[in-house]
Amino acid sequence: MHLFLGSVKENIPAFADVVQVRASDKDTGLNAAITYSITAGNSPSYFVIDSRTGIINVTNSIDFENTPVFNLTVSATDSKFTSFASVIIEIINENDNKPSFKQANYFASVAENSAALTPVITVTALDVDPFGQLTYSIESVQPGNHSDAFSVDLASGMITTADVLDREMIDSYVITVKVIDGGEPALTGFATVMVNVTDKNDNPPVFNASSLKFVISEASAISSFVTQIIAHDADSGSNARISYRITSGNYMSAFVIVPDFGVIKTNKKLDRENISDYALTCEAFDHGQPQRSSMPIIVHVTVSDVNDNAPIFGQSVYVVNVTEDVTSGTVVKEMHAVDSDAGLNGVVIYSITAGNDDGSFDIGNGTGKCC
What we know:
Distance between the termini: 157 Å
Radius of gyration: 51 Å
Largest sheet: 4 strands, mixed
Order of helices and strands: EEEEEEEEEEEEEEEEEEEEEEEEEEEEE
Helix content: under 10%
Shape: rod-shaped
Strand content: 35-45%
Structural class: mainly beta
């Protein structure tokens, strides 16, 4: 059996010539008239042969990736005899398939503050056309102006950090990765990588002020509300969960703080005459690892006065001797009482309440001078 070889590019238009087979016959006339036909290997009828010339044409565009070679059997018949030849037709590959990623969307995460060149994810593309090495590149990074945050290995598709990331600045990125093949013309494919930047406990809680001032009456009941201190933490999750504590200045445990809410309340009855001012040093701390604490905040609490103390004389009995001829208006004794309250509550007013039936004596209501 004779062998004929031919080739044709994939995707070539229909009815393009591929190869011509020739048979010879020593007879003459009608006995030498040869008819050609394809008898095998032509499924699904990609080829047709001219029965007189033996020229084989394609009938449809052929896909190299489906069938890279055909082995046809062609017959040549005269009026009496038939012979056969084998025709091997090679399909020439063209770069007609774009490289494609294994998935259109990838999801990955990386911890903030990771060192540059920390691996994030490897994206892999495939190309059914074997036209050279696939090359990867980063097409864009969103949000904008952050294309320098990541890099990709040209050959492997491994994406790594190119800079130290700060979740508190940007907590997620969308990277568009491009792959290009080595064909002519080169074809490209794209994939999207969504990167979540996970939190590290790199921020302490912060108060908006360094000190606060409040006033509460000494008559306030136990568990009375004084104030609420609030701090903020730029981290997330347990790294941003805040608790509060009083670290100093809480003499006699006069106050208590609700740890989870920063609410300061009285813990016992207050006595302004004992302690009139408190400077509570408080701090906020998070629940991350390692745990971080705020700068202290000073809560100044002034205890306001109520009139809960009576004036007290220096002595309970005063003995005074006067002569019978003492002139009117003569000061015979000056008495002094003290009131530990403050303001008007501590102003003492004097008066004679008994024993002065004949009005022989008088006392200065503001001085305590008896005359």
